[in-house]
């Protein structure tokens, strides 16, 4: 029981770490429209901004949504195993219902709060994962490699063919509309947010995201099936070997492009290959550290945040909504990278403190409680037993 509890704490801690990385990246998208419409240099102009953006690009950008995807795959398979023991043939039905509930939460989040929502996409990918979940490890790895390799190759060729256009891309009209509406009333914000959400969820983008995210879901399933998550000490040599391999690929495909001037046509190589392997490296190195009882203080800080991952993810969006948009403090496009990183430290620190305090009284976060209640069709006990 103690080993199982330690495993759960380790996964929660890694999930808490992923939420920190997601906040670092998402705050840039909340602050300005450059991710979607270009013009990065006009928003962040100082040498310090440039240096920090490079560090974020190497260690954070496109590394943490794959890490969260991997963790989702781990969670889905662990839940599948538990449900199979309890309800046998109904396991997949419960998991599908869980994905539909998650999709509804993500749809509401994406339309009414922030267009950058990832939960709806995770629910779609989760349904595909459930369909593939019983396939053997070798088949899952082939599926993952084929999808990730094909989408990366296709997009890299497309980006190379249009590299001159991409290098100078800047949609002035959309940038102007973003500033005019995100700094206005909620009606203005809603109008622009829906427009951006529709851009994010156009059919081509959805297919590309599925082919990028599903491989990491499947890798998460594979890691549980191989016993690396449940019994990491028994597989420590294999895990260490893959820590080295993932670090090397991380360096070549995520850091390497920056040594050649960071051409824009290599973005999908950085994101697809570099980002996926950097997320695998983060997961495995932290799994080993936490499983051997090292970094216990860090684990105790990160685990409560990860246990309330859904609530904390949505809370990050609500705070960003109030801080950056016109209905609140209206800092949209007004800050530099140092300011934004100070914001990240403050918001995440508050989440750490609130999570630790909250879990002393309650066993689920408010959104986790809704998630579980709707999944099982039964009101869940929220408060801890005294």
How would you characterize the overall build of this protein?
This is DUF418 domain-containing protein. Keywords: Membrane, Transmembrane, Transmembrane helix. InterPro entries: Bact_Transport_Assoc (IPR052529), DUF418 (IPR007349). Pfam families: DUF418. With 386 residues, the protein is mainly alpha-helical. The protein has one domain. Helices cover 77% and strands 0% of the residues. It is built from 18 helices and no strands. The longest helix has 30 residues. The protein is globular and about 55 Å long.
Keywords, separated by commas or semicolons:
DUF418 domain-containing protein, transmembrane helix, mainly alpha, 77% helix, 386 residues, 18 helices
List how many beta strands DSSP finds.
0
Question: Percentage of helical residues?
Answer: over 70%
Q: List low-pLDDT spans.
A: none
Elements, N to C (H/E): HHHHHHHHHHHHHHHHHH
Give the N-terminus to C-terminus distance in angstroms.
21 Å
Architecture blueprint of SSEs:
Elements: H1 2-31, H2 34-37, H3 40-43, H4 47-59, H5 64-87, H6 91-112, H7 119-132, H8 137-161, H9 163-167, H10 172-182, H11 186-200, H12 203-225, H13 236-255, H14 267-291, H15 296-307, H16 309-324, H17 337-358, H18 366-376
Helix pairs in contact: 1-5, 1-14, 1-15, 1-16, 1-17, 5-6, 5-7, 5-12, 5-14, 6-7, 6-18, 7-12, 8-12, 8-14, 10-11, 13-14, 15-17
């Amino acid at each position: 029981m103690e080993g199982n509890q330690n495993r759960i704490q380790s996964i929660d801690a890694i999930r808490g770490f992923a939420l920190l990385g997601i906040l670092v990246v998402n705050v840039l998208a909340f602050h300005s429209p450059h991710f979607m419409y270009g013009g990065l240099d006009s928003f962040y102009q100082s040498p310090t901004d440039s240096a920090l953006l490079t560090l974020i690009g190497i260690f954070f950008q496109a590394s943490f949504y794959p890490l969260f995807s991997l963790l989702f795959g781990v969670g889905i398979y662990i839940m599948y195993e538990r449900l199979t023991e309890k309800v046998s043939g109904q396991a997949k039905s419960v998991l599908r219902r869980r994905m539909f509930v998650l999709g509804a939460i993500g749809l509401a989040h994406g339309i009414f709060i922030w267009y950058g929502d990832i939960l709806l996409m995770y629910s779609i990918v989760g349904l595909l994962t459930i369909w593939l979940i019983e396939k053997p490890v070798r088949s899952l790895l082939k599926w993952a490699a084929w999808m990730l390799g094909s989408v990366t190759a296709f997009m890299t060729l497309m980006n190379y063919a249009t590299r001159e256009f991409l290098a100078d891309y800047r949609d002035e009209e959309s940038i102007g509309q973003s500033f005019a509406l995100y700094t206005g009333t909620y009606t203005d914000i809603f109008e622009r947010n829906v427009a951006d959400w529709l851009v994010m969820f156009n059919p081509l983008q959805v297919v590309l995201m599925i082919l990028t995210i599903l491989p990491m879901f499947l890798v998460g399933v594979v890691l549980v099936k191989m016993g690396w998550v449940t019994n990491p000490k028994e597989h420590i040599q294999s895990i260490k070997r893959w820590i080295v391999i993932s670090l090397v690929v991380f360096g070549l495909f995520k850091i390497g492009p920056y040594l050649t001037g960071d051409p824009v046509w290599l973005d999908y190589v950085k994101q697809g290959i570099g980002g996926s392997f950097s997320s695998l490296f983060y997961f495995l190195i932290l799994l080993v550290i936490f499983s051997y009882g090292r970094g216990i203080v860090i684990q105790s800080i990160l685990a409560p945040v990860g246990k309330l991952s859904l609530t904390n993810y949505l809370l990050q969006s609500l705070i960003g909504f109030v801080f950056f948009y016109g209905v609140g403090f209206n800092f949209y496009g007004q800050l530099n990278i140092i300011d934004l990183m100070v914001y990240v430290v403050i918001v995440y620190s508050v989440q750490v403190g609130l999570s630790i305090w909250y879990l002393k009284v309650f066993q689920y976060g408010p959104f986790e409680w809704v998630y579980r209640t709707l999944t099982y069709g039964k009101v869940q006990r929220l408060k801890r037993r005294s």
